[in-house]
């Protein structure tokens, strides 16, 4: 495992050696500005292209957030975005979505690159700032009509700054469809308020979601259930999935709010379908269960994420990368119009 905190420790040593704090802070600010500038300019170029092409009101735009250090177990999701991109364009399959959208048409899917998370951390940027940079990056994409963010994680901690940005940018809450083995709604996990196990507590506290539907749940503690009740979360557990299935495959969301946000943790799937995740949790959804829920969902999907794919746990032939990529492809088809 690489040591993600190496750069930060180095900078702390410099602080101790009486390097003026201003020097580091001003330097960080320049790096942050430059990082945001690259995302802003890429998004602007892609959107200008789409507006020139015409005939498109919404296009999915990939934004990678390679962040893994807010995981409570393994940090491998930090390496996921390039593996997912590679699999999206893998020559073993074609570029059509199941319902016939062409993914190589920029009116369906574009890419604005990654937020340089590890490079920013290497400059000593802390998590408060990092989460704001993720939110800012999402807003830069949304500013460029008709782009809509389709975020590649990263661990699940990134959904908090992403949903916050979507809600703030649209000026109100969204309905969130959250597919996961876990509710990720601890008040804090091991003292970390930004933990990947706490992102939905932050989202609900912030008032960024009107409804939160959690589907695929099969690893939930007493606190997870209590927090669910406290925030009025609709938790659909796998043990009752056969009963809930007709309703979940016929959802209509986002009416009366700013739209629908879809967050897919790859571990919502049974490990038989997706072994490359940090938290192997048997008894999950099949890939077709997930696609049925997504394909049949009625609502304006304003943004989405696919998180928690861990390439360091994948099979040698990258099976889970293909699974994560297909989730991204089908979500892009769902978002675009
Ligand atoms: Mn999970």
From TrEMBL:
GO biological process entries: putrescine biosynthetic process from arginine, via agmatine
Documented EC number(s): 3.5.3.1
Top-level taxonomic group: Eukaryota
Keywords, comma-separated and alphabetical: Arginine metabolism, Hydrolase, Manganese, Metal-binding
Enzyme class label: hydrolase
SUPFAM superfamilies tied to this protein: Arginase/deacetylase
Keyword Metal-binding among record annotations: yes
Recorded GO MF terms: agmatinase activity; arginase activity; metal ion binding
UniProt pathway: Nitrogen metabolism; urea cycle; L-ornithine and urea from L-arginine: step 1/1
Listed InterPro entries: Ureohydrolase (IPR006035), Ureohydrolase_dom_sf (IPR023696), Ureohydrolase_Mn_BS (IPR020855)
Cofactor: Mn(2+)
Pfam short name (any one): Arginase
Cofactor: binding details: Binds 2 manganese ions per subunit.
Residue positions binding Mn(2+): 156, 180, 182, 184, 265, 267
Catalytic activity: L-arginine + H2O = urea + L-ornithine
The protein's role, per its UniProt record: Catalyzes the hydrolysis of L-arginine to urea and L-ornithine. The latter can be utilized in the urea cycle or as a precursor for the synthesis of both polyamines and proline.
Family: Belongs to the arginase family. Agmatinase subfamily.
UniProt protein name: Arginase 1, mitochondrial
Organism: Spirodela intermedia (Intermediate duckweed)
Source taxonomy: Eukaryota, Viridiplantae, Streptophyta, Embryophyta, Tracheophyta
């Amino acid at each position: 495992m690489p040591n993600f905190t190496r750069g930060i420790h180095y900078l702390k040593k410099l602080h101790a050696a009486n390097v003026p704090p201003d020097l580091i802070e001003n330097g960080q600010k320049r790096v942050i500005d430059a990082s945001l500038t690259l995302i802003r300019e890429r998004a602007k170029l892609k959107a200008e292209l789409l507006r020139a092409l015409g005939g498109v009101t919404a296009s999915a735009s990939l934004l990678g957030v390679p962040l893994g250090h807010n995981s409570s177990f393994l940090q491998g999701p930090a390496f996921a975005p390039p593996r997912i991109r590679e699999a999206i364009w893998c020559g073993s399959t074609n570029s059509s979505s199941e319902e016939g959208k062409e993914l190589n048409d920029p009116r369906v899917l574009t890419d604005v690159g990654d937020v340089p998370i590890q490079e920013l951390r290497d400059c000593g940027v802390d998590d408060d700032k990092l989460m704001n940079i993720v939110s800012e990056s999402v807003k830069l994409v949304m500013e460029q009509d008709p782009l809509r963010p389709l975020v590649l994680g990263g661990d699940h901690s990134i959904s908090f700054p992403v949903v916050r940005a979507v809600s703030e940018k649209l000026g109100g809450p969204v309905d969130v469809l959250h597919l996961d083995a876990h509710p990720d709604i601890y008040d804090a996990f091991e003292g970390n308020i930004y933990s990947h196990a706490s992102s939905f507590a932050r989202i609900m506290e912030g008032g960024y979601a009107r409804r939160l539907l959690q589907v695929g749940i099969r690893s939930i503690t007493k606190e997870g259930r209590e927090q669910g009740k406290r925030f009025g979360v609709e938790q659909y557990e796998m043990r009752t999935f056969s009963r809930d299935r007709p309703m979940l495959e016929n959802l209509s969301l986002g009416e009366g709010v700013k739209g629908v946000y879809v967050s897919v943790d790859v571990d919502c799937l049974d490990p038989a379908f997706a072994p490359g995740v940090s938290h192997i949790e048997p008894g999950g959804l099949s890939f077709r269960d997930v696609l049925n829920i997504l394909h049949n969902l009625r609502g304006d999907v304003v943004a989405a994420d696919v998180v928690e794919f861990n390439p360091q746990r994948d099979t040698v032939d990258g099976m889970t990368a293909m699974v994560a990529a297909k989730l991204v492809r089908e979500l892009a088809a769902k978002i675009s119009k």
